[in-house]
Amino acid sequence: MTQIWTMNQWQPSSPHSHTRTLSRRNIGKSPHPWLAHQSGPEKDKTAKLKATWNYVAFSPGSRATTTVKSRSHAPDKPYRISHWRGESGEMSSIEEAAAQLLSADKDFNVALLDDIVAAAYSPTDPNRARANTTLIALQESPYAWTKADGILEHAKNPQSLFFGLQLLDDAIRTRWKVIPQDQRLGIKNYVVGKIIQISSDGNRAANEKIFLSKLNLTLVQILKHEWPTNWPSFIPDLVGSSKTSELLCENNMKILKLLSEEIFDFSRDQMVTDKVKSLKESLNNEFSAIYQLCEFVLEHSQRPALLRVTLQTLQRFLTWIPLGYIFQTNLVSTLISKFFADSTTRNDALDCLVEIGSLSDLPPEYDPLFRKLFVQFLQQLSFIIRPTSNIVQAFADGSEDDEIFVQRLALFFSGFIRSHFKTLETTETSEELKVGLQYLVRVSEVDDTEIFRISLDAWYMLSLELYNRKCKPQFGETQPNEVVYSHILTQVRTVMIEKMAKPEEVLIVEDENGDIVRETTRDTDTIAQYKLMRETLVYLTHLDSTDTENIMLTKLSAQVSGAEWSWNNLNTLCWAIGSVSGAMSEDEEKRFLVTVIKDLLGLCEQKRGKDNKAVVASNIMYVVGQYPRFLKAHWKFLKTVVNKLFEFMHEVHPGVQDMACDTFLKIAIKCRRKFLTLQTDESVPFIVELLSSLPTITCDLEPHQVETFYEAVACMLKDNGPAITVDRPELLHKMMKTTTDSWKNLMARAGANISALVEPDSVKLVTRIMKINVKVCRNVGSLYAVHLQTFFMDVLNVHKVFSEEIKKCQALPNNAGLTLFRLLRGAKKEIVRLFIVFTENSAAPESEPKAVAEGFLPPVMDTILSDYHNSAPGVRDAEVLALFAVLVNKLQSHILPSIPRVIEAVLESRQPKLLRRPLPRPPGITEDDCRLNCLGVQAHGAKHIRQGVSNQMQWDVCPRRLIVLLSQGLEILHEFLKNVAKSPEIAQGFYKTYLVSLVQDIFAIMTDRLHKSGFKMQATLLHYIIHLVLHNHVTEPLYDASQGNNFSSNTAFLHSHLANLLASSFPNLGSKGVTDFVDSLFDVKMDLASFKICLRDFLVKLKEFSGEEGDDGDADLADL
């Protein structure tokens, strides 16, 4: 211990503090040293409390006050694990042990708890399950927290200590306000004393590090209740105690760090808004004493652990403290010159500098200070690592601390440049800015994805800024920015090309029906990185396309020569080449792309082995697919590329056929007109030639690849511009000839023997044909109507046959028909999907809404809707609901006469299933719930919903039960309510019957702890409904006057109903808390934002007892 840590220098921060400083001497004398120096009545009260503390637990009532004895006072023969295993009653013994622990009338046996905890944590103990049950029951006991001090003092099992602390922590978070004041004081003193006792002993603090951290968190939970109102001296007390010992000071810094995090980072959904505001103001007002303590520690301490934790604590403060503490003190220079220079504290100091350097949107007077900071930092950094150093190698060979240093270096430069790039562009600091950019380039080269993503943000900002300046040159600019930073930008382009992220991958998977299908894996991080890198490289190419071209061609030459050959290097290079499509001029792009394709084709011929050739081939296909402008301008090259793709479609190497089909689709989308119009030196449009050889091209493709091929051709046929002279309907029939012939053959076999239609191979064939038709319909558009007419009724008949066969499969015992059952359901779903896609794409002239309503809708309702209505709940397809939702939206008024029948079929079949579900936690939300979009929302004129349907059934199912469907259901409900309001003739009847129950259901979902999503929409709905009542839009009385209810208005009734409902459901809130909350809800001046804050505060208060009317019950409105 150095001389500076003396009592003379470490005095309390305030001369008026009633608490003397703490020392090891205090700890030895009292377990509650922060109150050891009181006098008078308060001292007597505290002494009395301390005298009983180790034996009398803190409990709310005399009956529950339980004597907690140490092991020396425990029974002579405590229950042990071995004693539970008797010959006759193993269950009886452990239950007796549990009963003793849970009894409030018997002494609490800590030794027994140790044994039960040991059994619960032992994977081989036969009593483990029952021991766990006992611990759960003990934790849920309303008086369990009264045993916490005995457990913490006398338990020998480390897990028992954590269990006891958890009991105490739960009581502090939920019951603090109902615990008597003297016992709250006792808890506070005990926790503080325990913390000081452990943290003052270096060896014990190290051995019990995790337990001490939990104690610190418990103290912070107490502070959230007590400080500053009931514990105004906390900060002075903490600062004062820190001056007695470096060990104490180290732990106190951790407490301050936790307090800052709890208030500024994690307060949302944990504390009410006013409390958070109060804590922030208090911490800000008393920060001067905290800062002085940090400053003194940083100046005088030689203890590395204390210095590091002080820097970590300071870093948490830097996000919110006044700027004067940063720039009007020696903090910055101290961090750089003293702690950044020292390897022991370097990373923590750099973490502080990251926070300071990332501060933005500050007044201009701070610009010189940031420039000074940047210059000082670079000077000190140059002594640690030079800008030209090989950081990649240093990172690879370094320790964990070195890796952290490089990561934080990336954070510093990226944050500083993004926030202060223009500030550094001055004559005095322009060279330093280039040095900083050079450092960032070196850091970007490190082989670490997270570090590169950090750097990428800065490079994107820089490239965008320079590009905008090039587009709009600044007045008086003597030299273009791209020239000033040319050396840096060249290195950035190289890094971007070498590290280019890959676009989305396509995987081939087997679906539930055993079919191979395409599944797109969306790695959101990689996709976001690719998009950001692509934009960055495009901007860099606009700044200097020649430099980008030279770098790419040089690297491609290295691939051809073999100097840098690898699959990864070729892939990233080709992804980079594809990403800059359109960034060069047309002539530059032509020259560049011809060279690239020539080299890649030569590389493909040069390489041996199918794997190597497949990699090169896939990259060729990817690159050509990215340059549609070049392909459109050069027909012969385009034709050559497409024919080459057709060749690749016969290559059986994994992935090549998929890549060929994907590239063909991409080219067909971007160059469709070139295939439909007659080109130079061609006798017919290319699509005619393609369709004549279609069976040959697709003969080696898998079913999912065939679907992609048909999708590409359908994209071509969608073009109906004035330049198109081919007969598109005829070409469509020709394209579908293969599938049409297969369908006709199947129908002929079914006509001779209907059982042939339900054979597994036949069902699979139907599914494949339907999938191809779905792809074609989605991409060819309304033209598909001319093809659907040729087999529409046959499809409906197949759907009907499959439905009957499904019923037969269900009747078979022992799941004998399960395989066929799945195949049949899959085929039915594809049929309905085809009708959905057709409806979505229907348009004039081939399929006008009126024609669809008259010719398409009636047979669909007779077959598909009737089948849905008559099917068992477990086999109804969600796609049917989606189909009719699309029909309602697409056909508009043309479907209104059919709405009553649709509503009746849908809602009558859904009502039993919905009403069986317990609110608010349904056992399973199925897709068809989400499809109840419902016809009531989209039908134009709510009056049509009621026709032909029982009012009770329709209103009950449609709006009320939708609220269990998370965001989609809530949005539908909101839209439904707005539509109802537009029809005054039915609105009042709906409001009278269902408005109150809607409010109750929304509160049920909102207060259910297992359903936290959808809060914004829930609040919006409540705000909408309550304001309907407040503004007298609900004229019918919401209450039954015949039952003796006599209210002056609906507002008064709803206010009273809500208050009674919440008071009975949540007695822990107290009557005043409920009344205040309901009053605030009915404040007519409250906007939606304030309404959400009010609701959020209410949800926070639900987690604890109010202290007004304490009750051990913990009701949940969802249980009503």
From TrEMBL:
Entry's Gene Ontology BP terms: mRNA transport; protein export from nucleus; ribosomal large subunit export from nucleus; ribosomal small subunit export from nucleus
Listed InterPro entries: ARM-like, ARM-type_fold, CRM1_repeat, Exp1_repeat_2, Exportin-1/Importin-b-like, Importin-beta_N, XPO1/5, XPO1_C_dom
SMART domains documented for this protein: CRM1_C (SM01102), IBN_N (SM00913)
Pfam families: CRM1_C, CRM1_repeat, CRM1_repeat_2, CRM1_repeat_3, IBN_N, Xpo1
Top-level division of the source organism's lineage: Eukaryota
Location relative to the cell: Nucleus
UniProt keywords, alphabetically: mRNA transport, Nucleus, Protein transport, Transport
Transport as UniProt keyword: yes
UniProt-annotated stretches for the region Disordered: 1-43
GO MF, any single term: nuclear export signal receptor activity
Boundaries of every Importin N-terminal domain copy: 131-197
GO cellular component terms, A-Z: cytoplasm; nucleus
Chain intervals with Polar residues compositional bias: 1-16
Biased composition range(s): Basic residues: 17-27
Family (UniProt): Belongs to the exportin family.
Name assigned to this protein: Exportin-1
Source organism of this protein record: Thalassiosira oceanica
